[in-house]
Amino acid sequence: MWKAQITSKNSIKAGVLAGALLIAPIALAAPPSASVVDESVREQQRELFKQAEVAVKRRRIKEYQQLVQQLEGYPLLPYLELDRIGQIGYIANEDYVLSFFDRYQQSPLDWQARQPWLDYLMRQGDYQRFVRDFKAPGSQTHQCFLIEAQLALLPTEQHTADQADVNRLQVLRQVDTVWRNGSSLPKACDTILAAWAEAGLRTPELIWERVVLAAEGGQHTLLPYLGRLLPEPMQYLAEHYRRVRVNPSYVTRFSALTQAYPEHEAKILSYGLRRLIWRDPDLALATLAKLPSHIVWTAEQQLSLNQTFATALSVKNHPQAETWLARLAPNEHNDTTLQWQLADWVRRGAWQQIIEFMPRLPDTERESDQWQYWFARSLESLGQPGVAAPLWRELAQSRSYYGFLAAAKLDVPLNLQRQPLQLSEQQRQALWQLDGVQRAYELRALDRHLDARREWFYMVNMVTPAQQLQLAALASEWGWHDQAIYTLGQAGEFDAVAQRFPEAYLEQHQKFADAAQIDVNWALAVSRRESAFRHDARSHAGAYGLMQLLPSTARLMEDKPLNHRDLFHVETNIRLGTRYLSHLQQRLEGNWLLATAAYNAGIYRVYDWIPTQPLAADRWIETIPYAETRNYVKNVLAYQQIYRALRQGEQQPELFQQVVPMRIGKLPATSANSGD
Fold first, then answer.
1. In the CATH hierarchy, which top-level class contains the domain 425-494?
2. Which of 43, 273, 440, 486 is the most interior residue, by most CB within 10 Å?
3. Where does the Transglycosylase SLT domain lie (predicted)?
């Protein structure tokens, strides 16, 4: 155990008066492996740690000191230090604070301590220390104060007036980056923005640039302010942009254009039409057809319009979708339009067009599993199964949705391409020398999952690729499956199939899948796709837990209100998730493929997507309008097949052998209208 040094007598006195440094940095003694950790000792330490947290928060310093003495060597002592740093006299204990930064600079503890330290220096107006201790990127407030501090610290002597001006302008040029923001800036930026404008650096070009950012996805309420900053003849542009942002149909008001700034007006119209095509395709098409003659698109604007119109019209199954897709040359497609071009041909059975298009594709697309599959599928549909067979055979070697379809076509075994990922005891011991490993382990034991993930994330980004694989194996050993999966993805290792597809919470999945009379591998596949088995996952849409259930869905299944804490409970989540899968399957005539789509997109959207004339299942999946749902269905089917192969030892693509002959067509009216 070593102690932080506070060098000056005044600092020592101030620290004592503040009751300051009653904890010192601890040298961690790492256990060699998880199996060597004495869990009984650790359990005692965890209880002591929680008591120490309470003591420090309530400023019971003597009790806190005594507890810390009993926690020597415990990995989470830095978190107690962090709590105490927030209470001590900052400047009085500056050396201690700086030593904390130095010791934990490659961990989330650094920013958790540095942010309040920088905030304190800002309040004190301490420019020198702030510049010394600022660490990018910082918050917007910190970035602005950094520039203010750099201006204040510019030397006033030993320079000519001209050199001083040059130095000042060099610092002020940094404000350009701060300015390029579509939202309001914090008040801490006001000083440097004023100095920047006074120096003549706030040009009409930069103001217009921010107008565009605010209008196209930023804070549109900022536009009146920005408009007033523009030269008077240009101010109408900001107002027109604002109106188009609020209501895209305003783009049809050509009378609002003065023709004084044709390039700027073209920018606004391009933006407005790209939004209007999604809301009112016919109005957007009509408006585009009668543009004023002074509106001339740049090549970039023309391509963006073509891509957006082709996508929107395809999603809406508009009669002109095919025309707009045809306007795009092979090298003008983006990923979305290329998918819709393929989907359009697949929907119409335009097999010859797929075959003719293949040689014109970029190499990466032409060689992808997706295009290889549909090329072979086109050959087969045109009566050339012998030509398609070698393509199927090569594709069947791929562990993917399309590879499994190809294997099912040929009735050949799957190729899971499994590469075992194992830890030697020596590697395990080396990993346990990493402070981040120990802290993450303990934080998980205390159910502090957010802090544990932060520690793991920082650590994974600091170690070598070889260590990343070892960490993934270690996380898998711990049963920390979401982080094992994340770490393998970070390392670009996708053949560690056992770690990427763990049988997590198998007992619960089996129990409730059996009760719901569904395939347990389907339930596992959904949990794997939804949350990577993270029990406390929460989506932006407000879905919770392993199987990502909305509270409204859970209430429908349980017939009583449930909150997010209920849905974080593993058994509750799996019970309701499997029940919901069964519910959807029953309403969709027993078709688990349709139920998978409905689990993601909602059952009523799936009803809308079912074609009047039956369509082969692979063609229907490829034409699902929502990219998220289309990819979701492909992933869940592939994951379900992998789980069947891993768990049952079956290497035949029997799940996909059900998909190949399946046809999707209109359900009986009673199915589509039965209940909620």
1. mainly alpha
2. 440
3. 511-612
